[in-house]
Write a structure and sequence with these properties.
Structural class: alpha/beta
Distance between the termini: 24 Å
CATH topology of the largest domain: FAD/NAD(P)-binding domain
CATH architecture of the largest domain: 3-Layer(bba) Sandwich
Shape: globular
CATH superfamily of the largest domain: FAD/NAD(P)-binding domain
Oligomer: single chain
Number of strands: 18
CATH class of the largest domain: Alpha Beta
Length: about 425
């Protein structure tokens, strides 16, 4: 079985490494850029995703790239902060083994590339334009530069603006329209096509990275050197954590209510967002040298991640609001389950189509559920500043912290092992049925 993976991001590379463990599967990666881009932003992983990488043999090299080591004791995952008129309040979101491991994306990517087997061919500057299913159950790939190739399984790991998702949904819509006889547009086809373009959330995230020594000079014992901190202001919130072995600080400032009718200079907008913030948090903001806005978009819930022998994973399938820090983790989970099913199918005589259908039935509801949890987490932030008195503020702040903990607990209290076993059992039962 030849598997083509379009996209050399986290999900695509983890999938390539996992699939390469199976001798009956040939893996080829197609990356639209001329090289693997080292995007200068932080990523975070919860223990649920970390345990997958540990099983794949990546733990030792990854531990060399992070300063917060996974542990099994009670740990602080996030330090929640907010200030009223009197003082800075803190609430620690914590649990048994609840370590929020943080990385520079470039460092993380280098570890993945180190573990990518030499037998896995990587093709650069290959932007997929379209694909077509052939009569012999293969898929013909057509690239923007005029080249073409063929594969047995096509994996779309090409991000939120996925060309594979666009082609897959267009093909499904055409098939739906063929059986529709009314003169008005086919509603099912229109519903499918609504998933082609990512949807704007109305949120802007300002991202920046700066050297940790700058903050040490201003505030030597700052909490961000030990913990991921999340600060909730009245109209925006900040998340910050150390990356690159503690040498850099990665921050994001979330603007929940941008006004598109009055475009503003970034520096001016930040002054408005940060008004009234506690000095400990402003010490981080004052270290920023360059900050870039990012319009937060999501992929609307798809009816399927699979069509025939084409399958989506990661952001191409379920790009979500980043309020749970679970986007990368869900891509890793997708890759793990997909590789497990395809590997089992090739060794047990099951078909690839059966494996993909099981993948969709297992991963789609779970990943889309995580996207809903992430959206809910964002709603919690707005509740903190709805109190009028100091006593009510403190009670509401603690209550929100407890609800945030409950919304996050699955990330460290559960593993993917049960899902993997269920997927394999479903694949076995699909043939007997």
């Amino acid at each position: 079985m030849k598997v083509a993976i379009c996209g050399g991001g986290i999900g695509g590379l983890v999938c390539a490494i996992a699939l390469s463990e199976y001798p009956n599967i040939d893996v080829e990666v197609y990356e639209k850029n001329s090289s693997f881009e080292e995007i200068g932003a932080g990523i975070s992983l919860w223990p649920r995703a970390w345990k997958i990488l540990r099983r794949m043999g990546l733990e030792k090299d990854l531990l060399e790239q992070t300063h917060n080591q996974p542990e099994e004791e009670i740990a602080i995952a996030i330090r929640l902060m907010a200030n009223d008129e009197t003082r800075l309040h803190t609430y620690d979101v914590k649990g048994k083994g609840a370590v929020f491991s943080s990385f520079h994306r470039a460092d993380f990517q280098r570890v993945l590339l180190k573990h990518l087997p030499a037998a896995c061919k990587v093709n650069f500057s290959k932007h997929l334009e379209s694909f077509a299913h052939t009569a012999d159950s293969h898929i013909e790939l057509r690239f923007r530069d005029g080249d073409s190739s063929a594969c047995g399984i096509l994996v779309g790991a090409d991000g939120i603006r996925s060309s594979i998702r666009r082609c897959m949904l267009a093909e499904q819509a055409i098939e739906a329209s063929r059986t529709y006889t009314d003169r008005v547009p086919c509603p099912h086809a229109e519903s499918l096509l609504s998933g082609v373009e990512p949807q704007r959330t109305g949120i802007i995230l300002y991202r920046a990275v700066f050297p940790a020594w700058k903050l040490r000079t201003k505030w030597p014992g700052h909490a961000v050197f030990k913990h991921t901190i999340q600060y909730q202001g009245k109209v925006a919130h900040l998340i910050a954590y150390a990356i690159s072995r503690g040498e850099l600080i990665n921050i994001g400032i979330v603007d929940f209510q941008p006004d598109p009718s009055t475009p503003q200079d970034v520096a001016e907008r930040l002054k408005i967002l940060c008004e009234g913030w506690d000095p400990e948090i402003m010490a981080i903001v004052d270290c920023i040298e360059e900050i870039k806005p990012w319009v937060v978009c999501v992929v609307p819930p798809l009816q399927s991640f699979v069509h025939k022998r084409v399958v989506l994973l990661g952001d191409s399938a379920h790009a979500m609001i980043p309020f749970l820090g679970s986007g990368a983790g869900q891509a890793i989970e997708d890759a793990d389950i997909l590789a497990t099913l395809l590997g089992h199918a090739t060794s047990s005589g099951r078909t690839a189509e059966e494996a993909l259908e099981v993948y969709d039935s297992i991963r789609r509801p779970f990943a889309q559920g995580v996207a809903l949890k992430s959206e809910h987490q964002g709603h919690l932030y707005s509740e903190i500043h709805q109190s009028e008195s100091h006593e009510r503020f403190q009670d509401r702040f603690i209550g929100v912290g407890q609800r945030m903990t409950a919304n996050l607990e699955w990330t460290w209290a559960t593993t993917i092992d049960g899902m993997r076993e269920q997927a394999l059992q479903m694949l076995e039962e699909s043939t007997r049925a």
